[in-house]
Amino acid sequence: AAARLPSFVTSCFTAGLVFWFLKRLKGTASAISATVILASIPLFFFLGGACVLDTTLMLCVSAAFIALYH
Fold it and tell me: What pLDDT sits at residue 2?
């Protein structure tokens, strides 16, 4: 269970990052709907509970895209 914690934490950070970015860009309603859609994608949900590093890569790539947007 402890080995899966980093994947879960980075998945939560990714969802939070998407919410924060879209709230600033489009508003609260768009941010909530996009975050719910992201969290309900089966692969995102599965990787959040698996012991893989894909979620860390997803967080870093998402943060880089947002940084490039600004």
Answer: 83
Instruction: Enter the pTM of the model.
Output: 0.88
Name the DSSP letter for residue 52: -
Distance from C-alpha of 34 to C-alpha of 36, rounded to nearest angstrom:
5
CA-CA-CA-CA torsion sign (44, 21, 12, 60): positive
Distances in Å between the Cα of 22 and the Cα atoms of 27, 35, 45 are: 6, 9, 20
Range 36-45, long-range pairs (CB < 8 A, 24+ positions): 38/14, 39/15, 44/11
Extended strands (E) in the chain: none
User: pLDDT tens digits, residue range 18-44?
Assistant: 999 999 999 999 999 999 999 999 988
